[in-house]
## 1
Amino acid sequence: MENTYEQEVVAAESQHRNRLDKCFFGKESALKVQYDKETNRIYLGVGKKGSNNDWTWGNAKLKDVEAAEIIRVIASKTEAASFFHSFNNKNTKIWINKNEDSLIIKVDDQSKKLSPAEQEVLRIFLEEVILQSFSNTREARSSETRS
């Protein structure tokens, strides 16, 4: 009989290999970006810390071109970007604005301000996510043609 703990570790390691996560925490707010390789989806969330140290999150799924638009704002190729998502009768608005050195990302009524160094890490992370998304799409297409 296999050890349950070993099964849990293997499952956690497998899940970890299938997902990239990055979170930028501040005192009162946080930004998280996730890429799930299994579903080939990019997620963006902005959280706010409550009075009981609990977090509330505004979350949205991003398309690769929206992630690229965020990169363009970080690189100062454009001053702002915004996206509107509708899913299960819930509407989500995402704004990205750059003023001088700061970048502000807002999902609905939750926002997070990023420093220049955090912006650079976010840019690198999003570039990697887009590359992995392309690679994952190519692998899926290749598997379909072999089947």
## 2
Amino acid sequence: MADKTVSEKFTGRVVKQVAANARSIVVLCFVVAVLSSAWALTRTPRWSAWAAAIVPGSTSSSLSASAGALGLGDAMGVMGALGSGVLPQPAGIDITLATQILGSRRIQERIILKYDLINRFRANSMEKATKKFGERFSVTLSPEGIIFVTAEGSTRTEAAAIVNDIVDFANQELLTLVTSRARRSRIQTEGALSLAQDSLEASREAMESFRARTGLIFPEQQASSMMDVMASIESEMVSAGAVLHGLSGNLSSRSAIYSQASAQYRYLEDALRVRSSSGDSLSIFPVMDSMPAYMREYENLVVDIETRSAVYLFLRQELENLRIEESKESPTIEIIVPPAPEYLRVYPKRAVMVITHVAIAFILSIVWIVFLTWFRSVLDSPESGPFVKGVLADVRNQFRRHGNGAEKK
């Protein structure tokens, strides 16, 4: 049997058909290129921004990088299998936890709600919006312990803002999730400090009420001044009594001088008695009889205020110390490279889209030509041709009969 010529072989026939339909293929690729360009112009552009962050005080290795990819539970299993000497446990947990929080669903939902991405994605549920946002957002951990956060937005500014918000929300979640001993102590101390402050305010209000009720602003100084006044009255009364006693031997009780000295002595006596018993409206000091009770009440109030002030100051100092300890123990994410938006948009890449669509159209055209060439060879084959033509004829007859029946009806 003689060998077939190139034109008679299947490959030759395919090449010949491609050459015969080259114009149609070029026209099809051109139309696809135009339609692809027009479609790309209708797409909403997106820009990408990224930032580099670290967890201070933590170290990382290739194991921690794999931990970030596997997830927190799998990562802990890997670390337990390889031994604690490969990666320091606290540091590995901190950086892995920070990575998981950055990529968590809760952070994504907060971003979606803040930027109203459900409507912009035209999603009918949070699940679909989260799925779409997950395609435009990524968190990766390098072997050196640097976390790279990348996100896409409709503008360069929005993309950078989304990256910033992701880090801020993650820090807020870390403060809520990390339950260290210092944090629990800090929460309890805050409650005790609030009670101590309320107690101190109650003691101060009691002291204020005491001062308004008694008129004693500075009781020690006022009591000393009161004693000085009473001593002065008593001294003057002794002098007046001596003068009155001297005049009684020389003058009659009806004498004007004797009456004046007697009236002065009675006034001083009444003033001394009033200030030591009931007091009067002209006195600025409480009566002498009530001073011991007032001083005792004042001393109790002073001791109460000083005690509660000491407790309040102690708790205040302890709270500050616990906050410092908590900040040391809690992992925080710090940005070392601020969010930097890319100069070129990440979507749509018009040139790539046009080239890709044209290449797909060209390949499909070649595939279609190959299929038609093969099918024609099957029809022209003396073995399979009659059978295939008969099957096609039967199919056409079925449709023709159905159509004729419908017309008759």
## 3
Amino acid sequence: MKRIIVLIVVCTFVLSPLAFAAKGEKGASEAALENASDQAVFNRVGDWFATIGKSPEEKEAKLAELKAARAQKKADKEAAKAKKQAEKEAKKAEKEAKAAMDKASQDAAAAGEGAKKGFGKFMDKMKLKK
């Protein structure tokens, strides 16, 4: 009986990551990214290690430098995200424009065929009237 219980517990721990991986989520959730701040614990720990043993003036300068570097990195990420979104929208608009042009050319071709048939009937009527 003990072996069965141990086996069930082990299987639960081994198979539980597979159940969570099936969701297809990678990284942090959108809500977590929106609420993240520059004062996260890992930033503060890194800042502490960077400024340990320095004078107050050096600490302030180093903290300002680190904060500026984080802000620049965040701005770069936002710019890349905006660029990617703009490219995606441009591709979509180009695809829609191409589809509209194809449809317009098909409609024009169909109208041209109809005009040729109509003109042919008109010519036949004119020949009959002579």
## 4
Amino acid sequence: MTWRDTLEGLKQELTDVRAHRQRRVDEDEAGLQKEREDLTGMAQTLGINELLAEMNATLLDGKGAIETFVGWESGPGDPELDPGISMNGDEPDDDDEDTDVITTILSWEEAGEMEIAIDLGLSDDGIYLQINEIEIRPEREALEQGLIEAFRDELDL
């Protein structure tokens, strides 16, 4: 086999490998998109925004603020959502993927800044739900109870 034939054979092999890799990347991306759509649907099914809005209206007389951050839609330069920058000054874990999470925060002023943060995200084990970094079952009843406990904890009731 001549040098040129070897290069041509290698070129074809390289083309095949690249096409296979691209198919795998496309399949992985489609799977991730589906998981993110499921996560968004679960946030709506659980009624996270509605529950926090009801807490704000009933318990805080509407004086609180509700913000939602969708990790995979965050813009560049947002220091709160940049996985390379931690809000508490700790170094981020290398395997900590903050892009596959929807964070909804109810914050208000009452003898200082108070907040209840809900994280609904994807991990290697599936979908998780956390309130102020405490993991709970991703079910409406557990969410309601967890929000009441988080509110009590935040105010030391």
